[in-house]
Amino acid sequence: MSTAPAVTAALVAACAHPLVRVPTHRLDTADATALLGTARRDRLTGAAFAAIAQDVLVVPQHLVASFAEAHRAAAVLDVRLEHLLVAAVHDLVDAGIDVRALKGAAIAHSTYPDPALRSGGDIDLLVRGDQLAEAIQVLTRDGGERRYPEPRAGFDRRFGKGAAIVRSDGVEIDLHRSLAQGPVALLLPAERLFEQERTVRIADRPIPALAANDAAVHAAIHAICGSAVPSIAALRDVLWTSAAIAGDASLARRAEDLRVGAPVAAALRSARATFGAGIDDVIGEQVEWARGRRTSDDERRHLDAYGATDQRSVRLGRAALGAAPWPDRVALGAALLAPTHHRTPRRSRWSKLVASR
User: By three-state DSSP, how is residue 311 classified?
Assistant: First the structure.
């Protein structure tokens, strides 16, 4: 679905402010109404409402209350998700499972000046590959269901991104073994994400989360590898998590160390193209590294697969096969070409609820 240029420019300004100096955007009723719908869809109502309150966005007065209500509804959902996140982490830790909170509330409470600026729609958790099966058991013991079955035994631990758990109330918990599907799942040494940790207070409880540089790496990977075209919302996380460690060379160093320098650099370049040269005052050193970094032929093939709009899953599967060590290619190829369990798409009640807000 295309978005009017005025609406896109307004969203970009709302997401970059106050990190980047942006001009005031005045929207008429049609564009302001479209902005409200897009902000709801992309969970950017907090950023949009804050920009209106600070006169970065000027919308017709009769629509201000609608933006306020959308912001309130998103905040109610966020609080609900935060309490469920705390409960899920508590259950996993009690079971002896190492866990790190990802995205959502973890960066809302550690990176943004106000957590209401960064809304979520589900819960994302990282666990070790050899503990994934046990984590799934813990999170499904009270009636939750796994959204898609494991293609073949051992696929999750060796090749997959993770598993999606839909609770009985419709809330989705995405359990990650790695940070993306496709070649990143094969290249990134996910166990190393547990080398570092920081504690984030969520719902007044200490929650283990990724270290700041790993959170920035994840934001970049999600922006580039999560969809064919990076969204403004995903690139906003790239900007803010990178700004949180500005002046520190650890992002480039950590990205290369984790073998994901190409997608991280691509995300930084995309963020600059979206938010403009003004971000150079905030994350200029990181952007300079990204613009100067050379992309190998293999890395280009991987990025092309993530950016594909036609047969994306097929291209990602091929790219993953190319990234896998030779001894693993037969097992991976068998899982991709002849799975013993087939995916049955099912959309949760919770995702429908989020989409309707």
Answer: coil
- Give the confidence band of 349 by pLDDT, cuts at 50, 70, 90: very low
Nearest to 208 by CA among 105, 285, 114, 303: 105
pLDDT digits (tens, 9 = 90+) for 299-342: 999 999 999 999 999 999 999 999 999 889 999 999 998 888 76
Question: Closest Cα partner for 126 from 172, 187, 193?
Answer: 193
CA distance 59 to 67: 10
Q: Which residues contact 4 (CB under 8 A, 6 or more apart)?
A: 31, 34
Residues 6+ apart with CB under 8 A from 145: 165, 166
d(CA 73, CA 51): 17
pTM greater than the 0.85 cutoff: yes
What would the pLDDT profile of 239-252 be if each residue is shown by its tens digit?
Answer: 999 999 987 778 99
C-alpha to C-alpha distance for 119 and 76, rounded to whole angstroms:
10
